């Protein structure tokens, strides 16, 4: 398997506050990799830096062997990295259909319509209400829309930031089933989750981020069994 | 009764001019949250661009044919207005993109003064009225008891057509979608692969083109221009944009017609006559800011998640 994404010694600061000080991890093609850790550990900052919304102070990010850490954000998507951001961030005053079209903004091929239909098949509720404004949808439905929107660019790497946040257990299960399905279709997934149990159960590999640094790593099931992880993130011990 | 109808017609014609300018204010605000106080001056340089085209570029032979000279003057006005707006965006506002919001606002006031004075390099007497050609469209058109200049009707028609075209472009086209996305959530728009600079440049260019058209049509209607018309009409347009709800295209156009009507009707019927017609416009501005700061069609300020 080839290394699709490599993050090495990443450090990111907001002014004087260092949100990420030493994050390193690897995402192999075809895998689901999750970054877990407490609120404020630096997971979202890491994703936003990969997407180019933030600039690293040190370290490097390679995608498909090529350095991408100084590219402007709007060019990252065209490289094959899509992000489904924390808090969903759907365009609330636009329709479902327009949100999906925006996800395909960089594409000029004629398969966009077919891909929109595929999203509707995956999430029928979106198809039924395609002309309604995204802001009228429930949190879980907006999460579906945000994932669908991110899929519209046909990314090689899909980064999902807290996709289960604020969702009911049933909805969370649906979202995680979808992630597995996307992997089966060949998309590589980088997942950021506070819900460590669900995320690790799904992941080929997991990394624990604590206070802005990667501290533990291993295959998902192995980390799930690690007493340190269980004590810190699964409320045991 | 005739007077009332006549003043309503005049108000609508004035509103048409203000509306074309107000669209630029509201679009730029929608994208980068900047009140571009120099936008009135873009209207002014547009008018002078049309005048320069007439004086220095049009051959004598076609000056009298309005169907040739008017489109060329409009083109000249639009080219000058768009060029000035893009230079202003690139060199005055872009370097301040991440500065506190007060910095670009004060810069806009500075740019405004620079443009008012810079126009005198080409028109040294621009601080006094400069005659604008009108002979080629010098007709009065009677509609029932009221009579309008052909140029006023032209302004109303052009303003309505361009507003509808703009609304359609923003709502239906791919770039229009990108503009709305950037206005709603700039960071997420970048995650969609939208280049914010491209959207911002396009926004300035469209706003300037509309102001340029307005400037030339205003010139041929009023038959003279000076370097203060930008300030005066810019303030009206700004008020219209705030009244309609800054950021809203529909609001800007409707707000402009309301302001036009307030000015002509206030000048006719309120104490003080035309000497005081500005007062009523600013009374409205103050009332809007106090009681409905989001304007007629604007959204109340929200905190983003």
Task: Explain what the structure shows.
The complex is a heterodimer of chains A (237) and B (305). Chain A is an alpha/beta fold and 237 residues long. Chain A has a domain of 163 residues: Rossmann fold (3-Layer(aba) Sandwich), CATH 3.40.50.300. In chain A, 37% of the residues lie in helices and 27% in strands. In chain A, the strands form 2 sheets. A 6-stranded mixed sheet of chain A has the order 6-7-8-3-9-10, with helices on both faces. Chain A has a 4-stranded antiparallel sheet with strand order 2-1-4-5, covered by helices on one side. In chain A, strand 4 and strand 5 form a beta hairpin. Chain A is globular. The model of chain A has no long low-confidence stretch (mean pLDDT 93). With 305 residues, chain B is mainly alpha-helical. Chain B has one domain: ABC transporter involved in vitamin B12 uptake, BtuC. In chain B, 70% of the residues lie in helices and 4% in strands. Chain B is built from 11 helices and 4 strands; from the N terminus they run H-H-H-H-E-E-E-H-H-H-H-E-H-H-H. In chain B, helix 2 crosses helix 9. The longest helix of chain B is centred in the N-terminal third of the chain and has 31 residues. Chain B is globular, with a radius of gyration of 19 Å. The termini of chain B are far apart. The mean pLDDT of chain B is 93. The chains are: A alpha/beta (237), B mainly alpha (305). Chain A: This is Amino acid/amide ABC transporter ATP-binding protein 2, HAAT family. Chain A: Keywords: Amino-acid transport, ATP-binding, Nucleotide-binding, Transport. Chain A: GO terms for molecular function: ATP binding; ATP hydrolysis activity; branched-chain amino acid transmembrane transporter activity.
